[in-house]
Records
---
Amino acid sequence: MTKPGVPEGADAPGEPQVGPAEDSPAGQVPGKEAPASEGEFAAFYREHFGRLVAYLVYQGAKVSLAADLAQDAMITAYRRWAELTSPRAYVWKVAGRAFIRHVVDGPELAVGQVPEPDGVLQRPGDAEAWVQEQQVISVLRALPPRQCQVLALTIDGWAPAEIAEMLGIDPAAVRSSLMKARRNADEHHRRLVEGAP
Amino acid sequence: VSAVPPGGQKAAEDWLTAGHRAVCDGLSQFLAPEAGLREITVLHTGHANLLGTLSSSLDTQVGLAAILPSQATETSGPAGPPGTVAAIAAADPAVRLALRRDPAILTAILSGLTVRSLSIADEIFAASDLSRDRILGLVRALDVDLDRAQDRAQERRLDLRLSRTHVSELVRNLTGSAPSYAAPPRGSTLSLVRELALVLSLCLHHHHSDLISARAGLLSSNVHGGLLVNRYEDLDLVRVLGQARDLDNQIGLAVSHALGVQPAEGLSAALLDGALDDFTRTNLAHVDLRGRDLTGVRWSEWGTRWPPETDVGLLRARSREVAPGTGIYVITNPGESDKAIDRIPH
């Protein structure tokens, strides 16, 4: 979803991807003001939340972690909604980086521990079991990280230029990664067809 | 989408695209986006409204001042002279970032403290009817600012503890019951200003800055030399104080010129209050931060704009929020924070 009058990906989606800092109205609690249009945010949330969770799951995140990180990214976007010019790129980038930090810092949950259900994710154990059965997820997770990102975004409808901006890489690198990802995905795909391990 | 059709790359991508839709649909049976939306719009809006109501009905500055009467609050920003603070805030952020680690800044701060010490000494020496309360207020304020300057001094391997010892002695004498104030406060005051002048001299001579002129160095030597008399009766305090003020003006001019701002009163106080470190409303989007030591930089979630490649989450992790919920942070972890400026490799 693109905010009115602002083409999606038309500006650099680096973090923070915001408007002028000098515009913060005096007398308000800084960073806590509600978006100008809650309806606009709600529509954005409903359209993108599940897709963002799927994107993180493709990267290797457990579904409970993916839901948490996606929710955190949405909260961040909500707080800065009035300033964001490309919210989709923003939340994808915030959540993606949070997942990388999680991987780098190490998981907080003990191995095998099933997280408690929270408001956003119902039956986390069942959800994780369901995720494990999805061959699409297996194929994407088998790809190198960059190829996984590029292909996951492509099948979600992102244009190469939008991917390049969101990931902060050259469009040529996107095309190169996408070509390799398609080739590798095809190989995994063939193995699945042929029933090879 | 468990059935895997045969075919080439196109078929594989079509299968993945269809599978992605199925994954999104399938996840929707476990995800409750309305609950997530409620969490954000109800809880966070409610929290924001609560904070807004509280901030309008509670005067936290008054409450905090009652607890910490002599210290500025961290959330209130630089508390130096408003005009000077505003001028520094309006300076080129790249210049501010470069200058905040220059030895001239500590020199300017110490120069201001030396003038204040000499002014106190002048009052004590000149007054026939010493107003203890007034002097005590000045000394206590000086003690607070010496304490605040201590960290900056330590970065340059300078120690202000001895200066503070003299201040403590002054305070003891001024608050004591002894009717005779004359000798002990005078001796302590003289020791204090000598000690400060010595530290200032060291700062000027051993921590060279291109900003500090040779004239400033000479003035510093004069101030220091003027205080190296053995008996305070022989001290020409008026002359030394004049030289110290001249020195303070010289250093202030040099720092103002480097910042590209008009020289203004209270520069030393504004620098001590961290005016150079305050980037809470600054646009740094086009500033090259690579290789910069950002330790001590104050920034905010709501007002600081970072270069696009900045990992603000990592920066936040390396920072301390000055008070919960303010969104104002101080970068505390040297070195590590600078990594946030670089792109995260994927």
Note: Residues 1-36, 108-112 of chain A have pLDDT under 50 and may be disordered.
---
Amino acid sequence: VSDVAVVDIGMGNVGSVANMVRKAGGSATVAADPEQLSGAPRVVLPGVGAFDEAMVRLRERGFAPVLDQLVERGDVPVLGICLGMQLLADRSEEGVEPGLGWIPGSVRRLPAEAPDGTPVKVPHMGWSRVSAPRAHPLIDELDADARFYFVHSYAYDPVDEGAVLLRARYGGRPIVAGVAAGAVMGVQFHPEKSHRHGLALLRSFLAAAP
Amino acid sequence: VTVVGVELTDDDAEAPRVIPCLLLEGDRLVKTQRFAEPAYVGDPVNVLSIFNSFEVDEIVLLDIGAARTRTPTPIAQLRHYAEECFIPLGYGGGLSTLAEVEAVLAAGYEKVVLNTALDRHPELVSEASRVFGAQAVVASIDVVGGVGGAVRTEGSTHDVGADPVAWARRAEELGAGELLITSVDREGTMEGFDLELVAAVAAAVGIPVIAHGGAGRRKQLAEPITSASASAVAAGSLFVYQGTNRGVLINYPTRPQLERLMGR
């Protein structure tokens, strides 16, 4: 059994995520079938694209109930990446499908205007620094100047402030760059495309005790 | 040392991206001048892994042979290049179907770069944007003669009959998430960016503009950002040559150097 099962619903760069897991010293299985999740000690839920399309595919391909069970058991660390993090929410302004609802909250469109009225380019695309409100094993190994590659038009707004793992700034406002509750974690950026900083984060994920 | 309690300012929000733009011909990396005279600069795997170790912001890889033959680089070759790159990658060259776009994205690339397709297969720009998101679609516009000049496709051999600003607006309407604006007249000359061209395009569209063509000194990297409203800059010669005598030396500014260059 590999260290990490990477959920493959045909949306986004599962190959890059699996590569980075291997670079971080772990083994990875790309799971196109939910049966491949059974016995996996850790699961990564990547994703690029539209919220509704991803939720429909997770349900139609049978991933949603299997993942629900894993999360209910609470003994398998799950990491959502980019859209995969947004799927952890209850809902998104991008669509009408319900999300996985594991970390209560809504996903909202990034404002096209800063508080001072200057226009803001959406999507947020580029490298941004991050800050954590409190310590967490997933971010233990990050340098203070860690930067990550972001590409997103929507951002997580968790109900519980305590679920905020990381924040970044964009368009003159703080945005949620990471969430965590129990064994469920998510990051808005792409660790698999954030060279040594992403590597440090994935190493910590590999060290996360089931 | 961790990121706990780090103070963020708006300067940390999003630094302008500085992008090596690499030209592929077959299985070799080359550098051209005004889209001609391709000179060998190195083995792609080797050069990409050096840029990866420099922690560059992003890489754009353009197959100049594919742009002419309309046949993309073989996917196995592209996948091989992506395997050691833990940074964002874009690929362009010969893409004309949605299946080709999907294959490139699945091979480890975040973005596809469409140029001739804007003219020959405009529906591909829209479909790729709808299916994979606008952030995955870069419209590349090659310009001869500056802001009042002509847009050329197919490796600058075909004139589309539109001016750069009109073509840029059209690309945005088709669904491109970003524009790569290349001055053919400056490309490889190391004489500096065509700031007038970049400024005119950036003012006409709401999507990010990457300025490309002409960077010869590091100091020039900030100019499209500070005086032409570009969101990013791309350069070839500057990052593969040492000085204007064009001795091959793969290089990239360090992060503190970049911050100084960008006045942060």
Note: Chain B touches chain A at residues 1-10, 12-17, 52, 55, 57-58, 79, 82-83, 86-88, 105-108, 110, 131-136, 177-178, 206-208, 231-232, 255 (CB under 8 Å).
